[in-house]
Design brief:
186 residues, mainly alpha
Length: 186
């Protein structure tokens, strides 16, 4: 019996020693925190210098190169004469202009057709919708507000698609009148 009691005693002693060392370690870290320097430099906008004037970006109007201050003032003095010189360049519509315009119109048409498809699916689903709430089911059965709302949205989307198709046709006519190649519309 004595052997068994002797074997159980050493772990208890080891636990007491480890607890003391943990407590000692905690005391040491508290003392170190007290003696540690806590002050650090806090930077504010007042501490930072303003950026040099030459590093600030100049505001540019799209399609026009950046100009220095003297050149910009010279442009202002010319007035309408300067605008007249750039107007013919803006009126010229080349292949990239027409292709981009037709691409945008076709993208809008495709987006509207996808939205119409989604609306039609939702409408079909609302036709066979099951409501677990009997009051909601009775209201929907009598008034059919959800079904009617979806049908109205479908009709609006169909009108929008028709208008987009008409716009594409009008653009083709406009392209022919401008003397462009009909292949640019494809």
């Amino acid at each position: 019996m004595l052997c068994v009691a002797g074997l159980a005693a050493p772990p208890l002693i080891a636990q007491e020693q480890s607890q003391e060392s943990v407590a000692d370690a905690a005391r040491k870290t508290r003392e170190q925190k007290k003696t540690a320097k806590k002050e650090g430099k806090v930077y504010t906008n007042d501490d930072l210098a303003a950026p040099p004037r030459s590093l600030t970006p100049e505001v540019q109007v799209t399609g026009q190169p950046a100009q220095s201050g003297a050149a910009a003032e010279g442009q202002k003095d010319k007035g309408p004469a300067a605008k007249g010189a750039t107007a013919p360049a803006e009126d010229k519509k080349d292949e990239t202009y027409w292709r981009q315009r037709f691409k945008d119109a076709r993208d809008a048409l495709a987006r509207a057709e996808k939205e119409l498809d989604i609306l039609q699916r939702e409408h079909d689903q609302s036709q066979i919708q099951y409501y677990s709430d009997p009051t909601k089911a009775m209201n929907e059965q009598l008034k059919r507000t959800e079904v009617n709302d979806k049908q109205a949205k479908i009709n609006e989307k169909k009108k929008e698609i028709a208008a987009l198709k008409q716009k594409l046709d009008d653009m083709e006519v406009e392209l022919k009148r401008a003397g462009g190649d009909i292949g640019w519309s494809r």
